[in-house]
Amino acid sequence: MAEHAETVEKAGFCCLCRSRCGAVFEVSGGRLIKAKPAPDHPTGKALCVKGKAAPEIAHSPERMLHPMRRTTPKTDPDPGWERVSWEEAMRDIAARLGAIREASGAEAVGFGVTTPSGTPISDSIEWIERFIRLFGSPNTVYGTEICNWHKDHAHRFTYGSGILYPDHANADAILLWGFNPSAVWLDQATQIAAARGARIVAVDPRRTGYARRADPWLRVRPGTDGALAMGLAHILIEREAFDAAFIRRWSNGTLLVRTDTGRFLREAEVRGRDGATRLVARRGNGALVFYDPETRCFDADPDTDTDGLALRGTVRIDLAGAGPVACRPAFDLFAEACATYEPAVVAARTSVPEADLMAAAETLIAARRVAYYCWSGVGQHRDATQTDRAIALLMALKGGYDSPGGNVAFTKHPLNPATDFTQFPEGQIEKALGYAERPLGPPSQGWVRAAEIYRAILEGSPYPIRAMVVFGANMAVSQGDTDRAVEAFRALDFHVHCDSVETPTARFADYFLPVNTPWEREALRNGFEVTQEAESLIQLRQPMIPPAGESRSDTEIVFDLATRLGMGQAFFGGDIDKARAWQLEPVGLSLADLRARPEGIRRDLAYRPRKYAESRGEGVTGFATPTGLVEIYSQRLRDHGHAPMPAFPAPADSEAAAYPLLLTTAKSPYYCHSQQRHIASLRRRKPTPTVTLHPDTAEAEGLAPGDRAWVETAHGRIRLAVETDGTLDPGVAVADYGWWQGNEALGLPAHDPFSEEGANYNRLISAGAADPISGSVPHRSTRARVSAERGDGE
């Protein structure tokens, strides 16, 4: 009898979500047999069920393990895959992409990239982006407008940076807004649990995760978060319970705005000096003070006393040679806008009871230090950008930016970055689909909506997209307009799909390239975000097991393809080790150093609070905004035709009679978006796609838990099983998304994502009505009805 193979433990980290939890993996005989937490790792206190399912994911029989080429027309649901060699596949792919770029421009090739926050693409994302940008295409469907854009990029309209990491450990209160860390960022959930002295305020339509423990929980009606934020800000302003010193010195709230033009008053207009760039504020005694956006200082002195700068009131300022003009401090305009959101108005708009609204306000007022975070629960609406602005400005009132107990910018090691936005060839960004309509949004960074890709494929508008190269993105199930997606993918000249399993989107590909799992490859990680100690750790994750079959990493694929397309010099001659060694040069570490220490190497870093106040040249660092201050009033938005401060007109709700429910959705803690329903240990926890209703709502429709029901919008319908939840608003329905896979081990069927008989949530969503800045569509606030099955769609 053969002896059992020795079991060894290997240090690493999980990359199935943003948490990047430290983990230890048990391996025996070339097989992964167990994943468990690594308590000594800065993010290793716990490991979720997805992370623990690593052996099932790595050894799934549904993985594709060899390069495949299509042999049937794209209208055939069976691709008729035939196995080909890597050499044959890559040679043909490079030749065809190169020919399309030569004939139609790089913009004629679109790319699809899945989220690095919720999938293992995080191992390769920076090299994929380097490839796309140097190839020259400004058209990547990243899903950013329905995922991270608002917290990471729209936040810059206010602070000049994305949301900083919340310092839970030192906070007096923690505000979780459209963000359930238990499902999407386990280490944040762990940190919150350890912050026992902090009060939690949770804003969520569902009482789930930390909303169950929140005091208070604000059960907001989907899509009304902006009004809620403005209402809370109004209470803080009315009570004068905000950090006035921070607002006066570090926001543009004191700068005077001309009421006739809506623009900041400039020194040149007052003194008649040509070319003067300084802006104007005013003291309470009427004296004018001038602010320089270059030095970020008032009256050219970093120590100028700003305590007396006026925040309120209208004043008439004499202009040089032009008479007086009425002006108001930007903060006064913001206070006026907030004042329209009295508690009774907010309660009616949001369905949050006045008592809960006031309790939340009291918590924020009493807390000296407030940490906050918001995510896609805020971002998937028609007014997502202004909603993010409203939340950002509410938190500006607390003055906790880059401050202990607030939100902090930890110091990071200065590795050489593989990618940045300057890598696009000159003039290419302006060709991004949707750039003309949304020049301040994701197209300005080469990120486009799936709807615009579909239009370019099918209508050639504004120019044809002839090819798609997809890295893990399952657009037909993760984006709206599913029928349009099917039509577009069938019409593509050429489609390459890189993934580990065949998804509904991959079935339309001309080539399928098999990607290995994260436990079969190395990955370099510079810091782990959650503390300064965590950011001090550099780790090269080791392969736990050999790659299955002929599968390769996404990084290997792009290095090979880049070399074949003439970009070899930018990809280190195709040598990934040389590329990573170059990245490590600034910290003086080698790959050999990191391979010898698979648990990672710590190089101490120190956190410096309030870096915006540090001296810089003749002034201070300030904020990376047009005024160099926190932008309560955004002239940049105004100049592009948008409201300079958050505004939320009451919706017309013309569909309310036909579709009485507000439909929303949320990420499951058991799956990575549209993946892994084929994993038995995960599927047992959530075997069936469901729609959750208040019991009274279900009863009114003759529905009981377990019944199958139609969920219908003006755009489409699907079938889901009914669940009930007595804490849910009776006017809200919560439906699952991401469903298509069956589970052979459990005998559970697949769901056709392209049929109304299936359970594809995105069949219900249209990209027709979108946020005018970001293009976000209402995945979480669409009008719907839920009804019992009556046959024939009646």
From TrEMBL:
UniProt entry keywords in alphabetical sequence: Iron, Iron-sulfur, Metal-binding
Renumbered residue ranges of the record's region Disordered: 769-794
Keyword Magnesium in record: no
4Fe-4S Mo/W bis-MGD-type domain sequence ranges: 7-62
Classification via Gene3D superfamilies: 2.40.40.20, 3.30.200.210, 3.40.50.740, Dimethylsulfoxide Reductase, domain 2 (3.40.228.10)
Any GO MF annotation of the entry: iron-sulfur cluster binding
One Pfam family of this chain: Molybdopterin
Superkingdom of this protein's organism: Bacteria
SMART domains tied to this protein: Molybdop_Fe4S4
InterPro entries reported in the protein's UniProt record: Asp_de-COase-like_dom_sf, MopB_CT_Acetylene-hydratase, MoPterin_dinucl-bd_dom, Mopterin_OxRdtase, Mopterin_OxRdtase_4Fe-4S_dom, Prok_Mopterin_Oxidored
UniProt xrefs under CDD domains: MopB_CT_Acetylene-hydratase (cd02781)
Transmembrane as UniProt keyword: no
Recorded family membership: Belongs to the prokaryotic molybdopterin-containing oxidoreductase family.
Official protein name in the record: Molybdopterin-dependent oxidoreductase
